[in-house]
From TrEMBL:
Occurrences of domain FERM (ranges): 1-274
Residue numbers binding a 1,2-diacyl-sn-glycero-3-phospho-(1D-myo-inositol): 39-42, 257
Gene giving rise to this polypeptide: Nf2_0
Membrane-related topology note: Peripheral membrane protein
Organism of provenance: Rhynochetos jubatus (kagu)
Segments for region (Disordered): 410-429
CDD domains, A to Z: FERM_B-lobe, FERM_C_ERM
Species classification: Eukaryota, Metazoa, Chordata, Craniata, Vertebrata
GO cellular component labels: plasma membrane
Main location: membrane
Protein name stated in the entry: MERL protein
PROSITE patterns attached to this UniProt entry: FERM_1, FERM_2, FERM_3
GO molecular-function term, one example from the UniProt record: actin binding
């Protein structure tokens, strides 16, 4: 409405978002290439807003927390900071080294896609995602597939993290970047030297224009006695009166107003952090802890149900596989039984034929013996007849000998066939017994299978029972939760060490693919700081 003040519009936006931690945020607009923030106690249209309609405001974080995990209570607050910081890193308003960019990208993927599933998240699923700063992509001779492979390798390690947990991990890493939460302004000192003034949650910092990572001098909020400006001249009075007053000039009066506005807001939050929480914040933190505990219990319940379903499915699959195996064994046993019966019949028939042949040969041998005796008994008078007779006798003896040998061989073969027949009948008996055992196992397995496969269909009723339970968060629950949080802190320190090792490993791995000629000034400065072991916080301590 035309009469609305800045607070009316701001409150409407916060109510729409369900946001209660409003002190971090503001409505930003641009006037004559300068950023400005809507004042709460001033009418919206009384600001120097652009005259053309519609008037555009950006709802953004104006002040940043020192420690995101401790200060950001609501999930919506965490999500809004995550979106803003992620955009600033991708737009290169916050410098992020390549190896940390890959790690942050993996948490962004976890927040968007949930747990990694190789059957769903196949090669190329990140092709359309903007996950890395263009500066990082151009710095290395690596294809999009190679970047995706490295992001996915870390993404797979984040299994089990919910969206809000992944976003918080992102912020915990990003808040240690040198340019995180810093507002930069071009200034000149009394000598006319061009400098940069940085305003953030920790204090005021003075930088060289070419080095936004490492401040030349810092003024922590607890060491500043007074900040003021007159026209374009800005004055910082340290708490220690022995230290000289620091004066500088900005380009525009509007910029001085913005600097003072940011200084007052950051200083107020700096002091608030060092006092006991207000009643509203205590209530919000208590509600957040209860909500976190409830979500944790819900996730554990869902995980248990999922595990039960998976176990039931595995058991069912195993029983089905076992049933199929038993069916195959039964089929093979039936076939073996049929073959044994056919073999036994054939052996019996062959044994009978061999026995008859042996009898026939024995009969022929007897006839040949009789013929030989008859020939011997017959008197042959002439020498020729005698010679012929001797030859016939010899042939008859040879034939009788052969028939006797054949008869003996046939008799042995008949005995062997009888023995084979006995073995075949024994095999038939064993096959019948095994088939009987398999049949009894199959009927038992089928009954087990029917009872086990019914398990997954019973699980929804378990869901309903679980959902009807009410949880009473007593003091013991809160104490247990506090102990878990302490434990998580210890684990986080250990993970941080492991994380740094992983970052160094990735940096070493891709170092060979770096194009040195494409390194920016910030890349070179960051590498120099890293080689000296300088970090954001210890650098500020040194120059304070």
């Amino acid at each position: 409405q035309v009469k609305w003040k800045g607070k009316d519009l701001f409150d409407l936006v916060c109510r729409t978002l369900g946001l209660r931690e409003t002190w971090f945020f503001g409505l930003q607009y641009t006037i004559k290439d300068t950023v400005a923030w809507l004042k709460m106690d001033k009418k919206v249209l009384d600001h120097d807003v652009p005259t053309e309609e519609p008037v555009t405001f950006h709802f953004l974080a104006k002040f940043y927390p020192e420690n995101a995990e401790e200060e950001l209570v609501q999930e919506i607050t965490q999500h809004l900071f995550f979106l803003q910081v992620k955009k600033q890193i991708l737009d290169e308003k916050i410098y992020c080294p390549p190896e940390a960019s890959v790690l942050l990208a993996s948490y962004a993927v976890q927040a968007k896609y949930g747990d990694y599933d190789p059957n769903v998240h196949k090669r190329g699923f990140l092709a359309q995602e903007e996950l890395l700063p263009k500066r990082v992509i151009n710095l290395y001779q690596m294809t999009p597939e190679m970047w995706e492979e490295r992001i996915t390798a870390w993404y797979a390690e984040h299994r089990g993290r919910a969206r809000d947990e992944a976003e918080m991990e992102y912020l915990k890493i990003a808040q240690d970047l040198e340019m995180y939460g810093v507002n930069y302004f071009a200034i000149r000192n009394k000598k006319g030297t061009e400098l940069l003034l940085g305003v953030d949650a920790l204090g005021l910092h003075i930088y060289d224009p070419d080095n936004r990572l490492t401040p030349k001098i810092s003024f922590p909020w607890n060491e500043i006695r007074n900040i003021s400006y007159s026209d374009k001249e800005f004055t910082i009075k340290p708490l220690d009166k022995k230290i000289d007053v620091f004066k500088f000039n900005s380009s525009k009066l509007r910029v001085n107003k913005l600097i003072l506005q940011l200084c007052i807001g950051n200083h107020d939050l700096f002091m608030r952090r060092r006092k006991a929480d207000s009643l509203e914040v205590q209530q919000m933190k208590a509600q957040a802890r209860e909500e976190k505990a409830r979500k944790q219990m819900e996730r554990q319940r869902l995980a248990r149900e999922k595990q039960m379903r998976e176990e039931a499915e595995r058991t069912r699959d195993e029983l089905e596989r076992r049933l199929m195996q038993l069916k195959e064994e039964a089929t093979m046993a039936n076939e073996a039984l049929m073959r044994s019966e056919e073999t036994a019949d054939l052996l019996a028939e062959k044994a009978q034929i061999t026995e008859e042949e042996a009898k026939l040969l024995a009969q022929k041998a007897a006839e040949a013996e009789q013929e030989m005796q008859r020939i011997k008994a017959t008197a042959i008078r002439t020498e020729e007849e005698k010679r012929l007779m001797e030859q016939k006798v010899l042939e008859a003896e040879m034939l009788a000998l052969k028939m006797a040998e054949e008869s003996e061989r046939r008799a042995k073969e008949a005995d062997q066939l009888k023995q084979d027949l006995q073995e075949a009948r024994e095999s038939e008996r064993r096959a019948k017994q095994k088939l009987l055992e398999i049949t009894s196992k199959s009927s038992y397995t089928q009954s087990m299978n029917s009872s086990t496969t019914a398990l997954p269909t019973d699980l929804p009723s378990f869901n309903l029972i679980s959902e009807s339970l009410s949880f009473d968060f007593k003091d013991t629950d809160m104490k247990r939760l506090s102990m878990e949080i302490e434990k998580e802190k210890v684990e986080y320190m250990e993970k941080s060490k492991h994380l740094q090792e992983q970052l160094n490993e990735l940096k070493t791995e891709i170092e060979a693919l770096k194009l040195k000629e494409r390194e920016t000034t910030l890349d070179i400065l960051h590498n120099e700081n890293a080689s000296r072991g300088n970090s954001k916080h210890n650098t500020i301590k040194k120059v304070s």
